[in-house]
Design brief:
Elements (H helix, E strand, L loop, with lengths): L2 H11 L12 E2 L2 H11 L6 E5 L5 H7 L3 E6 L2 H11 L4 E5 L12 E4 L6 H8 L6 E7 H8 L9 H9 E10 L4 E2 L6 E8 L9 H11 L7 H7 L1 H4 L7 H10 L12 H12 L2
Helix pairs in contact: 2-3, 11-12
């Protein structure tokens, strides 16, 4: 039975329809699921996080290779998943990934809802995993891999570059891969955690710093910093004078925010939060 036929039968058996408000677009391409699983290089000892498993096509493929932690917000789909795939290898969590308490996991393989892409990645950046294979809208993936100076360069670009080696698994994923079809093309991306991680004293503070500063992405660094200085005072150890002196010392004061390299953002942040 094809994935689409299986989906249609499940919709009858479990009395559900895809919910737009939850960003539900179910994968119906078996070969694409295989592509994602192969990219993750799974072992029996792996514990894989899956966000938004839907009716479990990817879940089923993951369970053949490893243990799975699946987080699903839709209660009707949780019932389906428990009935069809319940076993010692599957830990099913009913709830919102953004607020769920997660067990330890070492890999992530997921086709998450696109409507939480940014918040999802900001959350994952705070988790300790070695590899992830994720599918997003193609435009969002472009933000994750963007370089300084490009219009897509953002907070997400900086964090992704600092923490991971990135690889595009599939640059173009057709809307036909899903049911219902999303309005845009998608892309699959792989993250492998870098062995050497940047030393950031306050990671949540660093994220807040980036989010605040990137609101003024087209201003030079000194002007942007002065504009948002009152907001940045929320960061522990904030010292405006240290920062401005550091900008001058490193000749960064006249450089636009969207031209600053990821490693430079770390150095800037550490310079003004030092005791």
């Amino acid at each position: 039975m094809s994935y689409l036929s299986e989906l249609q039968q499940a919709m009858i058996d479990f009395r559900f329809r895809p919910r737009k408000n939850l960003g539900q677009n179910f994968v119906v391409d078996e070969s694409f699921v295989s592509t994602l699983v192969d990219a993750a290089k799974l072992k029996k000892t792996d514990k894989v996080l899956e966000i938004g498993p839907g009716i479990g096509f990817l879940t089923r493929a993951l369970l053949e290779k490893s243990n799975v932690v699946a987080v699903e917000k839709d209660s009707s789909l949780c019932t389906l998943l428990a009935e069809k795939y319940g076993s010692e290898k599957l830990e099913l969590i009913e709830g919102d990934f953004l607020s769920a308490k997660l067990p330890k996991f070492n890999k992530v393989v997921s086709l998450p809802p696109y409507n939480i892409s940014k918040d999802l990645m900001l959350q994952l950046f705070q988790e300790d995993f070695e590899l992830a294979v994720l599918v997003f809208q193609r435009e969002f993936v472009e933000k994750l891999v963007a370089e300084p100076g490009f219009k897509e360069y953002s907070v997400l670009s900086v964090l992704a570059d600092l923490l991971y080696q990135k690889e595009i698994v599939q640059a173009t994923v057709s809307p036909k891969t899903f049911y219902p079809k999303p309005e845009t093309f998608s892309a699959a991306i792989k993250f492998v955690r870098k062995k050497t991680q940047p030393k950031i004293k306050d990671f949540l503070g660093f994220i807040f710093f980036l989010k605040t500063l990137f609101r003024y992405r087209n201003k030079n660094l000194s002007n942007a910093f002065k504009t948002c200085a009152n907001e940045l005072k929320k960061i522990k150890g904030f010292n405006e004078k240290k920062a401005l002196d550091y900008f001058v010392k490193k000749e960064l004061d006249a450089v636009k925010v969207n031209l600053i390299y990821p490693e430079e953002f770390v150095e800037i942040f550490n310079s003004f939060t030092a005791k």
